[in-house]
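Residues determine shape. Next comes a sample protein:
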Amino acid sequence: MISGGGTGGHIFPAIAIANEIKRRHADVEILFVGANGRMEMEKVPLAGYKIIGLPIAGLQRKITLSNFALPFKLIKSILMARKIVKDFQPDVAIGVGGYASAALIYAASTCKVPVLIQEQNSYAGLTNKLMSGRAAKICVAYPDMEKYFPAAKIVETGNPVRAEIYSALSLDKATAKKNLGYSEDQALVLIIGGSLGARTINLAVQEIIEKASSKNIQILWQTGKNFTADTKGLDGVKASVFIQDMATAYAAADVVVSRAGAISVSEISLLNKASILIPSPNVAEDHQTKNAMALSSKQAAVLLPDSDAKEKLFEALELLLNDVTKQEELRNNLKAFAKPNALVEIVNEIEKLLL
């Protein structure tokens, strides 16, 4: 059984883990447990897996009537999770973070089912911290996670990355630029803000694209579905709601501008790309800032605060693009964060729990 969700940062690693288990054991039965009304209830079935929803929900930061219902939803979700565990009789339970994960891990552990937790961020999520005592193993993506979890349980594996991203490693940069319709001789900046887009980044980019175009800086900009970009008459600037071929986009990029979600950071690390990370301030426990700081403190990325993005993005871009030595320093230091075998190692740890 696999549980977790709420965001793509939890869901896509969970699906990647399921796919690797399925690749090794074709006859395995996999059941997901999620939270009703959250993204996993749509994405998991699209990936070909069955999912059961729980009524569990998170605590709202402001006082609302829904917060008073939380204890009752939690108790109901734990009772439902125990019944699901007893009916399905899993050999192992995997939690990747998110509200539903807490209910499943608690229920599985009380039913003597071995539990593995996968933590994506450098600042551990509340659910995983609370449930760590019930886990046999905890797979993490960053060093120094002993401050959150029992040291004896930690295995530093890295985060699972989408299989298609790996193909970028074998693509030539000049060829990738040409295939995307860009000049091979000019710098290309890939700007990504997630499937919904990142409003601050989008507004900052809209401000600078005319200046960038005039200085022969090429831009491939993923806006997300909630933003309409105006790139008319600008040479070398392309915007799209969604980039279908992310492997080619990454391969073509000289510099990447991105939010600092765990999976984006893992992809950038794996592909060894010089980057400017603009953490979202609107996430639980400000974990994106901590992800970005984990890299920037080791001179492996440039951290640009969200509040400074609109005023300072072009300056940061121009400085980095004009400093080949700095780009090389970032790439060299980034190698310590690249975990190309993360998915294999995580599933190896899951299999060990079955012995």
In short: The longest strand covers residues 31-35. The two ends are 17 Å apart (CA to CA). Residues 70-88 form the longest helix (19 residues). The domain at 2-159+340-352 is CATH 3.40.50.2000 (Rossmann fold).
